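Progress note, sequence design subtask.
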């Protein structure tokens, strides 16, 4: 049986296939197509083994069509599908056999390291993870492995590459060039009768306008709008009038809880804010120094407009109003009394998150950030106090995974992600310094779990290049959990806070712990023993150095 393919191609689009001879009757091969008029045309053999596969016609038929033809068409499609599956199976089998023979049956790493970009340009909507294109392929390719001996080999390689090299911090003029607006807003001298860095700033806005109308925290988050609604109501009552001008009191925090995430910083914050002398920012974790001032709201969304320093200062207006009330009271004026109120800020990203540097600062130090968060904080507040809460980094990582992973959480999945992250980190260390890898945005985004957050000593040493050791209080979550009263007294003494009544102290020390593990996460159980052993090996040299810096073997976490 045969019919003219040229006719059918011509007729089908106009639904005129009834004019074709429809392959009917045993003598169809002897009939002439009325459009072809017997001329030689390209024939499509439908029941022949010589069928050409350069065209597939989907013939629509009415109920009077021959069902046998339709069956043949379906059978042809099924045969083609089966043929394709057979070919695919043979190809995959060949790959598997070849890979097993040569030891290449592992997936290649999707992340390689080469030269770091120098001052990359960044479009407004470009995601952080999209910046991988700024890096060139590495000379090597590390494949993912899951067995303990192979991972142990990677950890040993990482340990051999660890060098704790003292960082050279930039001078003040370099910092001014990078953040000129910030330096124009924050003065270099503060009021002498306040423990906090406070100053009066002339208010040049319209007295009938909303002073917070452009504040980015209020614009981008519905959670904060209630706070700013209250600030609007009380703002005008706290303006200071002097010689026909209006002034507002501005303040920065006296102390910062700078880290680390999943180490008990929320519980410390909740207890500390119950002290009558302590005031915090209107928002618990502004993340301004690390993210918002660069325009990062959520990492997955890329960059937005940068939050100016004025928006950050607005968060301390409630505390500034109370400090102003003390300073302007008649008794304080007469006796020169200093306000005992201290302001705190508790963004757990402050200690470690410098991911945005590569998009805003020239890379002039072999992949290492030329400026860090602490450089700018110290430039404005050389007397600031810093509180760090740490935890066994092995347990911290598992808690971090349980809290931030969105789906398919399990101990087995955690181990796979740990293995992948270790190989990515080890791959980076083959070409770059420890500091360059720890602060590498692309690496940090590529790793499925945040290994780098547990490298406490790397961050601490960098903070110690600009702040004195007596300005930093380092606590352990394990000690805090076992004896809350003791750790809180250490904090009170460190911040030089006023005495408490027994009732006030009981309220602070006996309240339930905050931000504990969720029930659904507890039901997943602990990590696998193999995973724990892997992470113990990885973090051991970093913990050893940390214990040496702090002169405290408790930071080896041998008993946990």
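Output:
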């Amino acid at each position: 049986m045969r019919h003219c393919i040229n006719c059918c191609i011509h007729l089908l689009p106009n639904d005129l296939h009834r004019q074709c001879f429809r392959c009917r009757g045993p003598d169809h091969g002897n009939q002439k197509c009325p459009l072809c008029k017997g001329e030689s045309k390209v024939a499509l053999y439908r029941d022949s083994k010589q069928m050409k596969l350069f065209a597939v016609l989907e013939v629509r038929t009415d109920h009077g069509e021959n069902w046998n033809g339709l069956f043949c068409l379906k059978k042809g499609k099924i045969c083609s599908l089966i043929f394709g599956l057979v070919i695919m199976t043979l190809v995959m089998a060949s790959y598997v056999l070849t890979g097993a023979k040569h030891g290449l049956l592992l997936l290649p790493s999707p992340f390689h390291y080469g030269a770091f970009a120098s001052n990359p340009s960044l479009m407004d909507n470009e995601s952080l993870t999209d910046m991988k294109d700024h890096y060139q392929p590495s000379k090597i390719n590390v494949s993912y492995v899951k067995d303990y001996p192979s991972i142990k080999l990677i950890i040993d390689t990482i340990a051999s590459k660890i060098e704790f090299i003292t960082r050279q911090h930039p001078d003040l003029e370099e910092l001014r060039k990078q953040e000129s607006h910030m330096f124009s807003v924050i003065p270099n001298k503060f009021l002498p009768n306040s423990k906090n860095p406070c100053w009066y700033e002339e208010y040049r806005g319209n007295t009938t306008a909303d002073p917070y109308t452009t504040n980015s925290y209020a614009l981008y988050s519905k959670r904060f709008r209630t706070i700013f609604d209250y600030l609007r109501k009380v703002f005008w009552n706290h303006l200071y009038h002097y010689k026909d001008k209006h002034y507002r009191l501005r303040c920065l925090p006296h102390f910062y809880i700078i880290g680390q995430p999943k180490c008990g910083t929320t519980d410390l914050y909740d207890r500390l804010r119950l002290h009558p002398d302590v005031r915090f920012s209107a928002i618990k974790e502004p993340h301004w120094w690390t993210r918002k001032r660069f325009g990062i709201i959520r990492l997955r969304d890329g960059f937005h407009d940068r939050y100016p320093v004025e928006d950050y200062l607005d968060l301390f207006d409630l505390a500034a109003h109370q400090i102003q009330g003390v300073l302007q009271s008649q008794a304080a004026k007469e006796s020169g009394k200093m306000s005992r109120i201290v302001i705190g800020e508790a963004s757990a990203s402050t200690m470690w998150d410098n991911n945005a540097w590569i998009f805003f600062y020239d890379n002039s130090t072999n992949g290492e950030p030329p400026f860090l968060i602490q450089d700018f904080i110290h430039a404005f507040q050389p007397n600031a106090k810093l509180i760090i809460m740490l935890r066994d980094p092995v347990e911290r990582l598992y808690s971090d995974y349980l809290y931030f992973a969105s789906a398919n959480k399990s101990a087995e999945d955690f181990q796979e992600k740990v293995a992948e992250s270790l190989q990515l980190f080890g791959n980076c260390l083959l070409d770059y310094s420890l500091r360059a890898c720890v602060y590498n945005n692309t690496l940090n985004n590529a790793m499925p779990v945040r290994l780098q957050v547990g490298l406490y000593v790397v961050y601490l040493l960098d903070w110690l290049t600009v702040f004195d050791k007596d300005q930093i209080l380092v606590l352990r979550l394990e000690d805090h959990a076992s004896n809350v009263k003791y750790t809180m007294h250490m904090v009170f003494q460190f911040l030089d806070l006023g005495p408490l009544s027994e009732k006030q102290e009981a309220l602070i020390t006996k309240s339930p712990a905050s931000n504990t593990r969720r029930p659904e996460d507890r039901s997943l159980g602990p990590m696998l023993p193999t995973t724990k052993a892997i992470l113990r090996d990885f973090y051991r040299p970093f913990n050893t150095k940390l214990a040496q810096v702090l002169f405290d073997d408790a930071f080896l976490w041998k008993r946990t």
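The beta strands are 2-4, 43-45, 198-202, 240-242, 245-251, 255-259, 278-280, 342-345, 385-390, 472-476. Work on this subtask will continue into the next period as scheduled.
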